[in-house]
Amino acid sequence: MLGIFACSPSKDPRDTVVITQSDIDSTLVSSHTTTILGEEYRGFGTSEQKLFVLNSKGDTVVSQSDMYFDFEFRDFDGDSLKDIVVHELSNTPSVQDLLLFDRAKMTFTMVKGFNNFPDPQPIEGTGYYYSYHRSGCADNFWNSDLFYIANFKTQRVANISGNECSGEMGIVVSKVKDEQKKIVEKFPLDILEKYHDRKWGFIADYWAKNYSKFIK
């Protein structure tokens, strides 16, 4: 019988996780391996929505519940070190969780609030990101948030809100401080026609050109 024995860094026997061949057949759904700073890490996702990661010594460096099993090792923040991106099962497309690699501790740390920013995209070379999410009316109400990550927490600094459905239609850009919005700019909907992919092109172009307006 194949067995993988995963111990926590404390080596407390009570923390030992034993994975048998039966577990692999019935519980493990995905597994990926990567090497970071010379250390190999093996990640496993289970049908019980648990994620755990072992280092090359067999120590458990991540043991996280409520994680959808679809995950990948990917350098999210552009520091040349692989992170863990977890793809959630959600009615909102592209909702993700993020565990950034912590060089000092040689482990991965969950980024608080990251799943509030669906489909996150980097603004290259800036340390800022923007999201996109549907807000109703068959995706004719929509929002995009500008945010950054500091000390393993997300911080929203601006928002684009689109209304292509009813009432006062248009696009509103707001600065966000302490989760309070202050409108800074408005656009008519016909500005979207300037872009081949309409709102997604507008969102990407606006943040790339204007993100610096919202830096504290």
Fold and architecture overview:
The protein has helices spanning 21-26, 198-210; strands spanning 3-6, 17-20, 28-36, 39-46, 51-55, 60-64, 71-74, 83-87, 96-102, 107-110, 121-123, 128-130, 133-136, 141-150, 153-163, 170-177, 180-187. The chain is mainly β and 216 residues long. It has two domains: 1-110, no CATH class; 117-216, no CATH class. The strands form four sheets. Strands 11, 12, 13, 14, 15, 16 and 17 form a seven-stranded antiparallel β-sheet that branches. Strands 3-4-5-6 form a four-stranded antiparallel β-sheet. Strands 7-8-9-10 form a four-stranded antiparallel β-sheet, with no helix packed on it. The longest helix has 13 residues, at 198-210. This is Repeat domain-containing protein.
Name the shape in a single word: elongated
Q: Are there runs of 5+ residues with pLDDT below 50, and where?
A: 1-16
Class inferred from helices and paired strands: mainly beta
**Alpha-carbon Rg, integer:** 21 Å
Alpha-carbon distance between the termini? 57 Å
- Number-wise, the strands total 17
How many domains in all? Answer: 2
Count the DSSP helices: 2
Helix content: under 10%
- Classify the beta-strand content into a percent band: over 45%
Provide mean pLDDT, rounded: 88
Main sheet overview = 7 strands, antiparallel
Helix-strand pattern: EEHEEEEEEEEEEEEEEEH
Q: Which SSEs are present, and which pair or pack?
A:
Elements: E1 3-6, E2 17-20, H1 21-26, E3 28-36, E4 39-46, E5 51-55, E6 60-64, E7 71-74, E8 83-87, E9 96-102, E10 107-110, E11 121-123, E12 128-130, E13 133-136, E14 141-150, E15 153-163, E16 170-177, E17 180-187, H2 198-210
Antiparallel strand pairs: 1-2, 3-4, 4-5, 5-6, 7-8, 8-9, 9-10, 11-12, 12-14, 13-14, 14-15, 15-16, 16-17
